Structure prediction request, 262 residues.
Amino acid sequence: MLEENEPLLLRDDAEGIVRLTLNRPQARNALSRELMSALQAELERIGEDAGARVVVLAAAGPAFCAGHDLREIRENTGRDFYEALFAQCSALMQSIVRLPQPVIAEVGGIATAAGCQLVASCDLAVAAEGARFATPGVNIGLFCSTPMVALSRNVGRKQAMEMLLLGELMDAATALRFGLVNRVVPADRLGREVASMAGTIAAKSPLTLKIGKEAFYRQLEQPLDEAYAYASRVMTENMLARDAAEGIEAFLEKRPPVWSGA
Prediction:
């Protein structure tokens, strides 16, 4: 059981990798307003942290995240509360997308509703073989409309509608086939797989990662010709950076690059 004075969110930093752990295992890491506030605040700190290269989002206990805290919702009714709740959650998901550093979801258990949205909002996701995913709001008379935004930007339309309309649990292999996760590994390899992926990313130029992540999401929303024009401008600016010159020199000289972050 979680002690009353134990934080809802844990942070651990090592070699440029920031590991954030949702720490409400007794509530299946449901996104209470307090937990969302803690995660939002930590993401803002990470965004300003020059030493942070990549973020891993994990969870304590057998569940990754069961979505919104239904007990909290039942105890707080009315339009004002609902509007504030969903605005807060939407802002949190966008903060993950807009964070300069890449974010990897380490999914060891169930991820449903807003928990599935959380996975979809991360840049990469690795799941244990026993992980399960669902957007089951339709089963309780509440269509998963906000999870739909992130979900529909990760998987195909037919696959997204299948999840949203049926509300059924989906196994990790199907999530991989749908494109919701990048890799599926045995549970005992999950941490090592994510650490390896994070380490590979952390070794890259932080400036390049920031430029690339921002450009990726911006071009997705643009028509093809505008996307190419925008990406060409981004490439030009990237080429003028010191890290690009260092990377090219290091490649030609057959040595590891030394990144300056500029």
In short: The chain has two domains: 9-202, 206-252.
